[in-house]
Amino acid sequence: MRGIIDRERASAFGVPTATIGQVVYASMGGIEASKFREGGEDYTIRVRLSPMARRRADQIGRLQVRPPRGGQPVSLANLARIEPASGPVEIDRQARQRQITILANLTEGVALGDAMDRVSQLARRIVPPDIQTGFEGKAKIARESMQNLVFSLMLAVIMIYMVLAAQFESFLHPLTIMLSLPLSVVGALGALLLAGEFLSIIAMIGIIMLMGLVTKNAILLVDYTNTLRRRDGLERDAALMKAGPTRLRPILMTTAAMVFGMLPVALSRGYGSEMRAPMAVAVIGGLIVSTLLTLVVVPVVYSLVDDLATRVGRLARRDAPVGKAQRSLR
Question: What would the CATH number be for the domain defined by 138-329?
Fold first, then answer.
């Protein structure tokens, strides 16, 4: 049933629309009259018209509505038009707009991110362009958490660069060391792919952990190279050739210790292990690939960065006398 209120007649009888709604709601939906307790459970007692008294429009039209300021009750049929119709049981709103919530559960073997992508593609094909769509519940929380983790990852990279720049007193050598970061990400994503794991929030936490772990290999190599050049006066290539074999053992030992420490977490099949395993897999893959590539790539990049710094220094020294001469002529 649908009731269309005649606002002019309701105003003439002194009956607000809110009062009409209250009467209809109490008669059709019922009002809470009391509570009944049994066995520690509370049961709500609602009072409303019997089903036989609310089946037809004329029965609903005979409901009496009393004006709030007193007066004779007025039948609902004099205030509104009652007609058979269908409509929603309730109307939900968000940001003062009507909304419809569609609930769904994940099937086995489907990640939340993949399900969100499929639903978004389906919505773009079916939903009209004038209707807004969005995710709620775990999907919304997962999207916000992933955005926060990406921000944390970028912040970690910036902090690492600031600390390395302060320790090495250089703006270029930290870039050489931080080259191991993208190498570790490649290893982490490859390990997740080989293990059949998803890039979940826990895996992202493991990648953020990698940002602080993988730089230690390059730090050992670059720091010892600088020490050999500064202390022993070795040339750059000779210092790199000596620093590689010397620092190979501690690099492999520390990497192996962390890899073997993460293996029980990655191989565990106990309760809740499926949540922790992606983090361990990401850390193990990132450490192995970063260690192997760092021993080859970092010395090459160190040489290129050192050549660049030398050229920049020569250009600066070449322009310095010209500037002094121009100032003297002026």
Answer: 1.20.1640.10
